């Protein structure tokens, strides 16, 4: 730089800024390491995510898109948040996914985050990666914003260890203020779309250092972290430097109702859209069913008169605005059985609701009918509950289909999984046998788990969580015993899964229920495996488990 000013005189330099490109990329690499890439709308993980069928949900998408583009009619009290809600199965995620694509094509999409309780990525199930993922997407919108966010990371190297309120201030709001002060900067505008906040699970901050006299820390509830996300978004939207529109989609659970509609009416900072009440979905469901019946008719060479219009009308009435009902019926006809579609459709149409008190009754009847097609419904349901347990484990590694099958099957060489789940492909996505080493089970819709976990809805199909836990514990003991036997050879990933099981089930509850204890050699193998897989952190994990199991004994040391 000295040679640039050689022999120069009588000049003055104001506000000289020298940017090191390598340093900029280093800061952004730190940010990228903290994001949840699968939560972004066009990620590979969301390749099979639901989208609105062509020509359906047009009205609600148009309304939301117009709201994103329009200027506030009340600049003194702008409403920068819209809450999109509705019961399970009304198509919230499909609407948000399709809207994200439309906004992206229109150049008005700033950032997205799709929470998913079923995801193998913990980043999509927790709030830890939420703000970094939003900030990372904003950094790629404009060069000046990228520099401001990079500088924020340099100023606070430990920002990723802070709570989400501090992160939002440092990584989003402060950079936006910095950019807003630049007189030549173009005005920022666009949307941030966040879906499935009701599926965010709570972070658990366990104290593993105290002695046996200290009671274990109570588990934090999911709604605590869900509320924290809502609060940080409200804080952001109320900042004058924050120019974006925020769309939040969730079920109408209590924490959301109390936050957005504290007195039964929308709060002053939010617009509310109820997909079930504000929009008539019957025409859209009719279009969806007609399009898929056309495909089924061509595939099976069925007459043009099938199905009769009255059958489609009956299905639309049965759906009661729930797209999940229509989608499950179609998957049932296409994937579920060896019987022809005409027979299966007739069976669906014969299901009749007995009361009006349960809005999900016909969906529940459909789920019950499909589950009954398994050769062993109780054991099939047990498998589904176990799959959900591992998919939703707070600390366990992501489990592939082959590993879960190996754990749950009575005989490692058997085809028990196909035997039990083969007729249930309309409820749970199961990859081909050759792909099961690198793929995961995927339950199509959370409403199935809601059904199975509610005794009032599923009746005799209900299995208490304690019974599920004991089933997993029995499989865990068997797996540990076999892992000690040299005649059995298991993969590294399977052995790693086994080491996590005691911390994913209620170990204390299992011990109190007088469940079978593992042999001493198995315990030795398990402890050594935990140390092998976790290294120095294993000490805290083992101590935590020991304390939880023995706390009731109240041993005086």
Instruction: Evaluate the radius of gyration.
Output: 27 Å
> Biggest β-sheet, characterized?
5 strands, parallel
| Poorly predicted parts | 1-5, 208-213, 552-557
Structural class: mainly alpha
* Largest sheet strand order: 2-3-4-1-5
Number of helices: 23
How does this model look, in words?
The chain is mainly alpha-helical and 557 residues long. It contains 23 helices and 7 strands. Strand 3 (191-195), helix 7 (222-237) and strand 4 (245-250) form a beta-alpha-beta unit. The chain has helices spanning 21-32, 58-69, 92-106, 130-139, 143-155, 164-180, 222-237, 254-260, 282-300, 309-319, 323-336, 341-349, 361-372, 377-391, 401-408, 416-421, 446-452, 455-458, 465-483, 492-504, 507-512, 520-534, 538-550, and strands at residues 81-85, 109-114, 191-195, 245-250, 270-274, 428-429, 442-443. Residues 1-5, 208-213 and 552-557 have low confidence and may be disordered. The longest helix is centred in the middle third of the chain and has 19 residues, at 282-300. The chain has a 5-stranded parallel sheet with strand order 2-3-4-1-5, with helices on both faces. Strands 6-7 form a two-stranded antiparallel ribbon. Helix 4 (130-139) packs parallel to helix 6. It starts with 20 loop residues before the first helix and ends in a 7-residue tail after the last helix.
């Amino acid at each position: 730089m000295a040679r640039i000013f050689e022999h120069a005189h009588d000049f003055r330099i104001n506000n000289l800024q020298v940017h090191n490109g390598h340093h900029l990329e280093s800061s952004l690499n730190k940010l990228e390491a903290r994001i949840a890439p699968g939560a972004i709308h066009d990620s590979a993980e969301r390749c099979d995510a639901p989208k609105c069928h062509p020509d359906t949900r047009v009205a609600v998408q148009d309304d939301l898109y117009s709201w994103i583009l329009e200027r506030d009619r009340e600049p003194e009290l702008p409403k920068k948040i819209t809450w999109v809600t509705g019961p399970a199965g009304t198509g919230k995620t499909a609407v948000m996914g399709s809207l994200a694509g439309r906004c992206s094509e229109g150049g008005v999409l700033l950032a997205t985050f799709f929470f998913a309780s079923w995801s193998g990525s913990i980043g999509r199930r927790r709030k830890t990666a939420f703000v970094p993922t939003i900030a990372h997407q904003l950094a790629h919108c404009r060069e000046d914003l990228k520099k401001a966010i990079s500088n924020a990371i340099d100023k606070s190297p430990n920002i990723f260890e802070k709570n989400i309120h501090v992160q939002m201030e440092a990584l989003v709001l402060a950079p936006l203020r910095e950019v807003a002060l630049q007189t030549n900067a173009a005005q920022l505008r666009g949307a941030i779309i966040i879906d499935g906040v009701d599926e965010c699970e709570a972070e658990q901050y366990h104290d593993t250092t105290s002695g046996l006299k200290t009671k274990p820390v109570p588990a934090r509830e999911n709604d605590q972290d869900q509320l924290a996300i809502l609060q940080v978004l409200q804080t952001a939207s109320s900042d004058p430097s924050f120019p974006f529109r925020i769309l939040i989609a969730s079920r109408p659970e209590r924490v959301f109702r109390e936050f957005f509609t504290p007195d039964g009416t929308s709060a002053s900072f939010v617009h509310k859209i109820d997909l079930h009440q504000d929009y008539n979905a019957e025409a859209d469901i009719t279009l969806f069913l007609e399009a898929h019946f056309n495909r089924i008719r061509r595939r099976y060479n069925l007459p043009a008169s099938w199905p009769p219009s009255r059958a489609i009308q009956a299905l639309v009435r049965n759906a009661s605005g729930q797209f999940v009902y229509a989608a499950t019926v179609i998957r049932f006809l296409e994937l579920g059985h060896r019987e022809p579609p005409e027979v299966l459709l007739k069976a669906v149409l014969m299901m009749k609701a007995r009361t009006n008190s349960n809005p999900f009754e016909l969906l529940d009847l459909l789920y019950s009918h499909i589950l009954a097609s398994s050769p062993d419904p109780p054991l099939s349901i047990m498998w589904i509950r176990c799959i959900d347990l591992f998919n939703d484990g707070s600390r366990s590694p992501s489990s592939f289909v082959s590993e879960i099958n190996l754990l749950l099957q009575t005989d490692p060489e058997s085809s028990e999984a196909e035997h039990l789940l083969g007729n249930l492909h309309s409820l749970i996505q199961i990859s081909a046998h050759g792909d099961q080493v690198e793929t995961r089970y995927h339950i199509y819709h959370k409403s199935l788990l809601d059904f199975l976990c509610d005794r009032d809805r599923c009746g005799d199909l209900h299995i208490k969580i304690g019974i599920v836990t004991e089933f997993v514990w029995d499989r865990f003991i068997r797996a540990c015993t076999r892992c000690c036997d040299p005649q059995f050879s298991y993969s590294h990933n399977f052995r790693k899964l086994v080491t996590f099981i005691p911390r994913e089930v209620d170990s204390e509850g299992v011990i109190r229920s007088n469940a079978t204890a593992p042999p001493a050699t198995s315990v030795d193998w398990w402890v050594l495996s935990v140390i092998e897989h976790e290294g120095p952190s294993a000490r805290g994990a083992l101590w935590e488990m020991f304390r939880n199991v023995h706390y009731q004994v109240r041993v005086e040391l």
